[in-house]
Design a protein that fits this description.
alpha/beta; Aspartate Aminotransferase, domain 2; seven-stranded mixed β-sheet; four-stranded antiparallel β-sheet; 43% helix; globular
């Protein structure tokens, strides 16, 4: 028998969870938007103008010169000590570096949480709507995911209380994104946060708090993280993707002692550790208060882009029954189309006119609101935003007239 | 309520799979061996002398200068096109780059395979002994793992055939490491590979072939990969950790069309994509046949270190009933202690004498052979190997006399 003598298909039996995995809607849409000339409000790509390329270049140089062999070697699953210390010190409540686990992007944090906290059939609560990537990370562990009623200010705490009283088992956790939420851009004010934490504590419900956008505020820093209000009550996820660069794939989990050891073991089994080189490079970039100088430039850019998009919406959507919110930070805003117009049906018409977005239905655990869509204001330029919103309005107008 | 008003523990209910996760024995041992002065044959750390620091530095410089924003942005889950093309072209059978999925180290490949192919209660076959990290990656998906009888030449194919005939369900796959296996250092010859692939094809049994060490041969390149003998019959995992550097966390999966889309979806949910910066850096380093010049230097170093260790074993173990093999490549050799001596009991005595190893029991899916141990010959220097093997022999001698 020589190589390739055999071409015998074998009996692949896929795991039951594989049946539940589906191609990401966003992913498929992004493929369309890669067509030249399409203005995309679809992806959640930070503006590359904000990437500190020169600071990275200098950090690479220093890390490889001073610490090359260690930066290229296997390392501890917990993460690089100085980076864990930086994370602990950067958070607005007392955090021991021993509680910090460096992850391969905060997406991996969601995967580890799912592995450690979800059994097949477990109840799980999420906001309505919620981050699609979280649904994708949780789904393979086969939970029953329930959306909690939410309004423009986030989770409806009274509805949560009723939902906790019903159901056949306590939910394993509530996944919540309090700052400039993906997909809606909405935030929870301090009163809502306090009410939510009080209810979660009363019910013994763990919170999984995801905060990739908290630093991207336009006017003032957001209120206290939920985890700061009750550090034993939840797991906190953070990311370097939006304040430095996503291509490094670095995020972190802060976890109480009740779950940290299991998250660490899941991390070790998942990829041994996050790249030691990247961790040292980021630790080097972060020294000497770099973010204090860098992040304000991102905030200013995104605030400007958001204002441009809001202005264009005012102008172009005039006379159409289209609604949208005014986020106080982050990367996204949330649009509701006129009655009878489905965002999914609108999308191909919009793409024909050269503009793309993500239909909101992708972000609902339960019954979707098909009139919703997510618009990112950070990737396209101000000029593209003007052209794109005008094209979007034309596509909506056509749908309304056709309806 | 101010921050930290509440310190209320909530009701963490861990997933059933979390109960099965245990701290890695190797990990705990590595902590001991970090004590200054301990000579460690325990870890599987490549020699840092083999890391091409200067080539990496130049590649970082070029990537950030010519392609900075793209290298730091989100990217496709499949991986960076030129790197996928390089991988496909480097393999000794026809591989379409579309079959290549870049992973965050080959450990992540094992995690993705587990998610896509294992249900709770699934039968799974592994070699005896097998790679501990694979057991850790598979275990969270709650399979029933069975060891297949193996000898110095790898999987015993007749035993495999009997095992396939027995059992209550067809196994989901056989996990096999044909080249310089971790932990034993053993390899399968061509005849054994052909017999194994023929039996797997006959039975319709998928193979998961792991090949992190194949390039580290001492005398001649190993025979054809199993996957080359039947490309539709399995999934192949590779790594850049042993030929470039582990701290970059880059590996790959080559998968047939029957499973690639699900592995890709699992990858997307796990960490979106492997670091785009690292992928571009490695693609840049690999250009112009770098490995053709670099890998022979690793082979020569490890061959020399292996010979030193074999020479020391001959000399120091004289008169003791200790057996060991002579690997043709890789990083490890496998030792069997005299009757009545347990490697687990030996370890603390050896550490007292300043030398560490990994007891073989950690690597068995079923009943362990407690007389076995794994020795790495690549991390310690030639001088340390001499001191360490002498100390190990003294510890064994003491145990034998005490027995």
């Amino acid at each position: 028998m020589k190589p390739n003598d055999l071409h015998t298909p074998v009996n692949w039996t896929l795991a039951r969870r594989a049946e539940r995995m589906n191609p990401s809607v966003i992913r498929e849409i992004l493929k369309v938007t890669e067509r030249p000339g399409i203005i995309s409000f679809a992806g959640g790509l930070p503006s590359p103008a904000t990437f500190p390329v020169e600071a990275m270049r200098e950090a690479c140089e220093r890390v490889l010169r001073d610490d090359g062999p260690a930066a290229l070697q296997y390392a501890a699953s917990e993460g690089y000590g100085p980076l864990r210390e930086w994370v602990a010190a950067s958070l607005p409540w007392p955090v021991d570096p021993a509680q910090v686990l460096i992850t391969t992007g905060s997406q991996q944090g969601l995967d580890l949480v799912a592995k450690v906290l979800i059994d097949a059939g477990s109840r799980l609560l999420v906001e309505t709507p919620t981050y699609l990537g979280a649904l994708q990370a949780f789904t393979p562990m086969e939970p029953r995911i329930e959306g909690v009623a939410s309004d423009a200010g986030g989770v409806d705490v009274a509805a949560l209380q009723r939902q906790l009283g019903a159901g056949d088992a306590p939910p394993r956790f509530l996944y919540v994104l309090p700052n400039f939420q993906n997909p809606t851009g909405r935030s929870m004010d301090l009163a809502r946060r306090q009410a939510l934490v009080a209810e979660a504590s009363r019910a013994g419900l763990p919170l999984v708090e995801d905060n990739p956008y908290g630093d991207l505020w336009f006017h003032q820093a957001p209120p206290s993280p939920l985890t700061a209000l009750n550090p034993e009550g939840g797991v906190y996820l953070g990311s370097f993707s939006k304040i430095l660069a996503p291509g490094l794939r670095l995020g972190f989990i802060v976890a109480p002692r009740a779950v940290y050891p299991k998250l660490l073991q899941a991390k070790q089994a998942a990829d041994l550790h996050s790249p030691s080189f990247n961790q040292r490079m980021v630790a080097e970039v972060l020294k000497d208060g770099f973010l204090d100088r860098h992040v304000p430039t991102i905030r200013a850019l995104y605030k400007r882009q958001c204002e441009v998009m809001l202005g264009c919406l005012e102008r172009e959507m005039a006379g159409l029954d289209v609604q949208w919110n005014r986020p106080d930070g982050g990367m996204f805003l949330w649009v509701r189309l006129p009655a009878g117009v489905s965002a999914i049906e609108l999308l191909p018409k919009a793409v024909d006119r050269g503009v793309a977005f993500v239909p909101g239905s992708a972000f609902f655990a339960g019954e979707p609101d098909e009139r919703t869509m997510r618009l990112s204001f950070v990737t396209a330029s101000a000029e593209q935003i003007q052209t794109g919103i005008a094209a979007l309005a034309a596509a909506i107008r056509e749908q309304v007239q056709g309806a």
